[in-house]
Design a protein that fits this description.
This protein is α/β, with parallel strands linked by helices and about 625 residues long. About 30% of the residues lie in helices and about 25% in strands. Strands 2-19-12-15-11-3-4-5 form an 8-stranded mixed beta sheet, sandwiched between helices. Strands 23, 25, 26, 28 and 32 form a 5-stranded parallel beta sheet that branches. The protein has a 4-stranded parallel beta sheet with strand order 22-24-27-31. The termini are far apart. Uridine 5'-triphosphate (UTP) binds next to strand 4.
């Protein structure tokens, strides 16, 4: 097996497999074995061969080495001492934050985006693809639409700043589990407004399972002519971006930055401009968007590791290794909070990564996109000779800096005092348990509530005073739920853009039971004076220049009601445990381009319960 073996004929393939200790794969074949079954086997081997840098031979060799290390208990962090990485901590809406954001906005035209969406989402227990979930049920918009509309809003901002058309490309990594459904979702919705060719789907292939320490490949128990395969992890994204030619294409079209994000964090773009500003100023090759990490929290910590032989690297240390590493080196207390901040002194890594394209593409050319891998076999006993079930090699996207040398500029950006990370990974039953324990739930309910809070924080940054959000239990999951504010990303990119759209913020008031849903193309929307106690829905078409000069809304509004324990509903609601109840709303629809000013009399008495303009 090797670089050319995808072109080998069947007998050459069998010979090559034999040479790497895999003769058992065809040992059961006999005169009755059908040509069709053999064909299926060879087709799969050829596919596996091209899907892994160096082919099956390299995979088996890497597997043997990693399995030997695992058996002898090699500690991958042996010899490394942790220190603090280089980076920037910016209080949200502070002068430093605003300055970094301004710097970053000038770079937006050079951005590309990579969504890793090949994961199964087993912990969430949702049978669909995660990007098809609504990020909140007030508008019901999917994650995929939110992401694309956010990128298009940045594209418009970049075009306006540069005074010329700009196209920001998006790559989505999918897998066998998500590929067709992602493609169908995009097609059914006209790519949510992205141009033909703007989106590239990259499909990660699964890797073979290993049945023992000799890295003998496992056959599928349900099909002896197929090798058992499992996902290789999100680290595949680097190989795919390189191998598909996507990075070269982007580079040739002037792309300078690559932003990686995950399938269910609605807040993924909020601090991107400021993060870009930090990358520019500190000339970072890799900038990890981080959050303040609570000691013991199950997210990785970014650390500057120095090896006793002099090597150095800034990398994510997995949460289950942090305590032991600290205890064995710099801190006998282990993973504890810093007294001054109340947080772990190591930034919490959330897998949102901003890479400078040029050094990244150059490094992938050198390595072929190979990522450091790990293996996690579950042994049957202490002798570590047999596995409970076949295992496989895995890799993680955030391990890319391990391939860089000590002098590479790798750092982080944290924006404090604001909500930037709230992924949806946990099913309702597990979320209830986590909530009882006082841990972050990373559930559909918390993802939704945090999205409202995050938008409210943008309003507050512009000077709007919002009442504090009370803590409530949504089907047993505690969240801070205030006014449900959903504002399309076209409203503006960055805090300064929002300030411009809200020129008199002290004249905007909203009760906690309110819903404010602003949809469509909001680039022409300005809100001057709004008093909202109930639900207001505003929808604008492109070209509608709308000023809410004085808007008074008081109605019974919308609320969330529990599905109840025996409640039956569609899955996207079942994973939350509640649904939307719409009692009354005021609607302002601007369906044609033009200039509009909405000015109510001081009291709302003249308005109907449901008004459509
Ligand atoms: P998660 O940690 O959420 O894992 O992945 P998961 O596999 O999706 O969910 P569980 O563990 O089964 O519950 C983080 C991100 O990486 C992507 C996911 O889609 C998510 O955006 N991912 C994960 C891939 O793209 N490929 C993979 O092989 C694994």
């Amino acid at each position: 097996m090797g670089a050319n073996s995808s072109r080998q004929n069947p007998s050459e393939i069998l010979k090559s497999l034999d040479a790497i200790g895999q003769a058992h794969l065809s040992a059961g074949w006999n005169a009755d074995t059908s040509a069709a079954d053999k064909d299926r086997f060879f087709t799969q081997v050829k596919k596996l061969e091209t899907a892994y840098p160096g082919g099956v031979k390299a995979y088996v060799e890497n597997g043997r080495k990693l399995l030997a290390d695992a058996k002898s208990g090699v500690n991958p962090l042996e010899g490394w001492t942790p220190g603090f990485p280089d980076g920037e901590s910016l209080p949200f809406n502070s002068p430093e934050f605003v300055a970094k954001e301004a710097l970053g906005l000038k770079e937006l035209d050079g951005c590309s985006f990579v969504l890793v969406a090949g994961g199964l989402g087993e912990r969430l227990g949702f049978s669909g693809i995660k990007v098809a979930l609504p990020w909140q049920i007030t508008s019901g918009e999917t994650y995929l639409e939110l992401y694309i509309r956010s990128i298009l809003a940045m594209q418009s901002a970049a075009s306006a700043a540069k005074g010329k058309p700009v196209t920001l490309p998006l790559a989505i990594m999918v897998s066998d589990d998500t590929a067709s459904r992602t493609d169908e979702l995009l097609k059914a919705n006209g790519n949510y407004g992205m141009a033909p060719g703007q989106i590239t789907l990259l499909k990660q292939e699964k890797v073979p399972c290993l049945s023992d320490n000799e890295a003998r490949l496992a056959l599928d128990p349900k099909d002896p002519y197929q090798i058992l395969t499992k996902p290789h992890g999100h680290g595949d994204v680097h190989f795919l971006l390189h191998d598909s030619g996507t990075l070269s294409k982007w580079s040739a079209s002037g792309v300078r930055w690559v932003y990686f994000f995950q399938d269910t964090n609605a807040l993924a773009f909020k601090v991107l401009p400021a993060t870009l500003g930090v990358s520019v100023e500190k000339k970072l090759q890799v900038n990890s968007v981080c959050v303040s990490r609570t000691a013991g929290e199950s997210i990785g910590g970014l650390m500057r590791l120095t090896h006793k032989d002099g090597r150095g690297q800034t990398i994510n240390v997995e949460y289950n290794q942090i305590d032991a590493l600290l205890k064995a080196t710099v801190s006998p207390e282990g993973d504890v909070a810093d007294a001054a901040t109340g947080y772990s002194p190591y930034p919490g890594s959330i897998n949102q990564l901003l890479f400078a394209l040029k050094p990244y593409a150059a490094m992938l050319k050198k390595t072929g996109g190979t990522m450091p891998e790990f293996v996690n076999p579950k042994y049957t006993d202490k002798t570590k000779t047999a596995f409970k079930s076949p295992t496989r090699l895995e890799c993680m996207m955030q391990d890319y800096p391990k391939s860089l040398d000590a002098s590479a500029a790798v750092g982080y950006t944290i924006v404090t005092g604001t909500t930037t990370f709230s992924p949806v990974k946990t099913n309702l039953a597990d979320a209830r348990v986590k909530s009882k324990e006082g841990m972050p739930t990373y559930s559909a309910a918390s993802g939704e509530a945090d999205a409202y809070i995050s938008t409210s924080e943008m309003l507050m940054a512009a000077g709007v005073v919002m009442p504090p959000a009370p803590t409530v239990a949504m089907s047993g999951v505690k969240v801070a739920l205030g006014a449900r504010v959903v504002i399309d990303p076209s409203f503006g990119v960055g805090v300064e853009a929002w300030k411009a759209k809200l020129p008199t913020p002290s004249a905007i008031k909203m009760s906690n039971r309110s819903t404010l849903l602003l949809k469509g193309d909001l680039s022409g929307l300005t809100i001057e004076d709004l008093d909202l106690d109930g639900t207001l829905v505003v929808t604008c078409v492109p070209g509608a220049k709308v000023t809410l000069k004085k808007v008074r809304v008081s109605n019974s509004g919308w609320s969330f009601v529990s599905l109840g324990w025996s409640g039956k509903a569609e899955e996207a609601l079942m994973i939350r445990g509640y649904q939307l109840s719409q009692s009354a709303q005021r609607e302002l629809n601007f369906e044609k381009p033009g200039e509009y000013v909405v000015e109510d009399p001081e009291r709302e008495g003249l308005l109907s319960k449901c008004e459509v303009m």
